[in-house]
Design brief:
This protein is 1% helix and 44% strand. The chain is mainly β and 320 residues long. It has one domain: Beta-galactosidase, Chain A, domain 5 (Distorted Sandwich), CATH 2.70.98. The strands form 7 sheets. The chain has a 9-stranded antiparallel sheet, with no helix packed on it. A hairpin with a 2-residue loop joins β7 and β8. The chain is globular and about 60 Å long. The C terminus is likely disordered.
């Protein structure tokens, strides 16, 4: 038999670094996700070390569904399916099926990398998908393009999200100013599953105009987005007093934003950064059908999002 190379390597597998115009990102083999992203020397992504596992979904691609499915059980095409309960404490299936799979290197250049994985059919999700992600850096920031093809003979239910944690220089979560162009939020039960919706206008969840986050705890899905002329939207975190900001933008395929202030994470990561997660569908979409995508056999779906560091308008200080 051939010898096996059993030398220890990083828990996240191979590391692919891309660099351009003062921007640098590291994409990893395990999950095909984002481990680090920095611009002009500052780490805007609160990622994880080369010798660590991803914590709290940090930087992961969430497919073929984002967020949670109640009891991991759903019905599609007249058949009821049971998924593994990957969040056993809440009896949910969470964050899809590709987070811990080994993704392959498809192409690599100095400023971009393309990685891919084939999700094989199994009893809980009896469809095969071919996923590709292109990660690119430039003077404009980080751009990510996802492409998913249904390699099955039957239509497949599908959704996608991503899970970057964002931070700003010398800024606590409490001191971040948030701009989130949404008109409603989902109400959830103790298992963080949707039980209704509420308008946000004029209330504590209204970030339609930039507002300091303060001690507010978020693990909340926002919808009914105010979109730009191209159909996309963006969430911006800023510190006006310092003049720093970072925006996460997403194209028209993404109709939801999940905001998570990290209060449930281990102590060393608790409330250290804010997850700003674009999603194509809300939690539990496999059961509700809300904004659920259905990929026909051989159909390919594509969408893009990205991270753009910027400059916020400084707040005037003093007496005028």
């Amino acid at each position: 038999m051939d010898n096996v190379d059993a030398r220890p390597g990083p828990p996240s597998g191979a590391q692919w670094t891309i660099v351009a115009d003062g921007h640098e990102a590291v994409v990893v083999e395990v999950g095909g996700g984002l481990r680090t992203y920095r611009a002009d020397g500052f780490d805007y992504i609160d990622g994880y070390g080369e010798n660590e596992l991803a914590v709290g979904g940090a930087g992961q691609v969430l497919a073929p569904w984002p967020n949670r499915i109640r009891d991991g059980r759903y019905t599609f095409g007249g058949a009821t399916r049971q998924l593994h309960l990957s969040e056993p404490a809440r009896h949910n299936a969470i964050h899809g099926l590709t987070c811990w799979l080994p993704w392959q290197l498809i192409a690599k250049a100095a400023d971009e990398v393309v990685v891919g994985v084939t999700l094989a059919a199994h009893p809980g999700y009896p469809w095969s998908l071919v996923l590709r992600t292109r990660w690119q850096v430039s003077a404009d920031g980080l751009r990510v393009t996802h492409q998913v093809t249904n390699a099955s003979a039957e239509p497949a239910p599908f959704g996608l999200g991503v899970h970057p944690y964002l931070r700003l220089p010398a800024t606590s979560v409490d001191d971040m100013t948030v701009h989130l162009p949404a008109r409603s939020r989902l109400l959830v039960d103790s298992r963080l599953l949707p039980i209704g919706a509420a308008k946000v206008a004029g209330g504590e969840y209204d970030f339609g105009k930039p507002r300091r986050l303060g001690p507010m705890v978020l693990d909340t899905a926002f919808g009914d987005l105010d979109r730009d002329s191209g159909g996309g939207s963006a969430v911006t975190l800023s510190n006006p007093e310092q003049g720093s900001s970072v925006a996460v933008w997403a194209d028209s395929a993404f109709g939801w934003w999940q905001m998570f202030t990290g209060d449930a994470l281990p102590e060393d990561r608790r409330r250290r950064s804010v997850a700003v997660e674009p999603m194509t569908c809300p939690p539990d979409a496999f059961r509700s059908g809300r904004d659920l995508l259905v990929l026909e056999p051989a159909e390919t779906w594509q969408a893009s999002w990205g991270i753009r560091p910027g400059v916020a308008t400084p707040t005037r200080s003093g007496n005028g």
